[in-house]
Amino acid sequence: MNTIDWLVVALSCVLVFAVGIWFARKSSQQGAEGYFAGDRDVPWWAIGLSNTATYQSGNGAFVMLLIVFGLAGNWLWWTTWIVWMPLTAVIWARLWQRLRIVTIAELITLRYGGAPALWARKVYAFVCCFGFAVLVIAYITGFFAKTIAPLCPLTTWQILLIFGGTTVLYTMFGGLLGVVYSDVVQFAILFLGSVAFLWLAIPQFGGWGHIMERLQHVRPEALQQMPPTNSIDALTLLVLFIQGWFVVGDGTTTQRFMAAKNERHAIGGQLFNTFLALSFRTLPLIGLGLIALSIFWTSDPQAKLGAAPGGMTLLSDPSFAWAELIKKCTLPMGFVGLLVAAEVAAYMSTLSSLINWGGSLVVNDLMPARMTGARDKIWVSRITTLCLFLFAAVITVLFVDNMVSWFMFINSAMGIFLLPLAVFRFLWWRFNVWGELAATICGLPLSIWVWFGLDYQSKPMWQGLGLLLGSSLVVLVVVTLLTPPESMETLKKFYLRCRPPGFWGPVRKEVPADPEGDRSRRRLWLDAVLGLVSCAGMVVATNAVFVGDWWRFGLSMVACVGGGAWLIQRILQAETKPQSFAEEKA
After folding, report:
1. Using CA atoms, how far apart are residues 288 and 519, in angstroms rounded to an integer?
2. Buried (b) or exposed (e) across 226-257, using 16+ Cβ within 10 A?
3. Each residue of 260-304: pLDDT tens digit?
4. Rounded (to 5) percent helix, strand, coil in the chain
5. Can you tell me the distance from the alpha carbon of 518 to that of 526, in angstroms, rounded to the nearest whole number?
6. CA distances from 320 to 143, 191, 212, 314, 403 (A)
7. What does the longest C-alpha to C-alpha distance in the chain come to?
């Protein structure tokens, strides 16, 4: 990188920093709820763009996936996401918005009663903040450092200090609004940068037809659009598909739902996020991944090769593919800086969301309510934000190494033990605080032990994921049935607050009837199926367009557009009906 490239990177960071700081005064004046929940005034389009930017912690991850697994590699995350993303839109987004809370942990003292609920809330907040948030920050930082390493002569500590420090500063002072609207700017930078790079790269490698011909010669199996493949087995897909039904939204996603203007904005934001995250943002990155695969893969057994599952790559580490592709291209002056700025934007958007979420857990759930005033809580959150980042930085330097393994751990294995817990809270009246505590205490340590300690990272993926998910279901059900249920009074208050679907028969008998709400809950099943069909069609079409499989593309788009249009029509019809009892209570 030359001086002009560094100036481009610096200007992009200044722009994002300015947007984040712009909201500092407003966030400080609104107190803790304004700081962490955006004063409940975030519109749908900002929710969608912000969540999508948060998910894209690095462009290099997509290129790495294609290098290792071929075109079908995207199904390692698509299989779960085509289920949980539409379910979140039609079911979970509205429930989170009705609760009117600041953090997921706060739900615990609404769902359960007594002193155990207070302790469970604190334990859950601690594990999420100093466990999950720290590990994800460490992972995205390690991946970011590796991705840009071939382009930037910076150590991991220097990268943390420059880019991480900038993010921490604007997150500390801008609050959730600063994070959300900075994400919008960052998404524009990272997406437009990737599109421009693809447009410039294709002709430099002989055009798209030549790229496909080379792939057919050196690695034809990489163009297989759908698994199972030699490296992605059917049992892994089955476990990932099942996993999707248990996801009710992660911490940063639900934080935005709870900050939405109303239910309609929460639902609309998730639908917009679904389109952006599953397909739109991936289009240029899949193209770049296929180009990288065509030039960094060889069928020559005498070539000097790096390690990669299922074949031979000219790279010493697949996570270097994105940066090495940039070095292979002839680009306009300053364009390398723009591409690094896009990677920086992806990293900063995810980092800012995670540290703001972690700070909200400390202030809202770990600190005693009587301890400080609203402004003092904001300062405690800012200090917590800094401490979280420093803790994660140490984890990054000491432990984050094998990026393929860490990718699978963060995206699937890390939280799978806790997923049934999230669903049971809403769908099963009998679930109690002891099941909550069992899952929270056991979940993360077991996931780390199984994946890294027992080395399930080196085994077929379905084995580790299946073991964790199966053991979670057994532990949660057994502990719940061996301990007493929550009081009916506690259950009634929670039910009236959000009117969840599922197995609440004994509680429904004790509360006023809500015929309109009952009909609305029955509609959710068809809505869920329509969402799943639409999302599946969208991702199948996304892969098909790159290999020119126009029959599959056409049929998939019919499913995508037809299912999506019907779903949106049903949602709009439901929203125009008179308010139900549940909505009035919310």
Report:
1. 47
2. bbebebbeeebbebbebbbbbbbbbbbbbbbb
3. 888 888 888 889 999 999 999 999 999 999 999 888 876 544 444
4. 80, 0, 20
5. 14
6. 10, 20, 22, 11, 10
7. 76
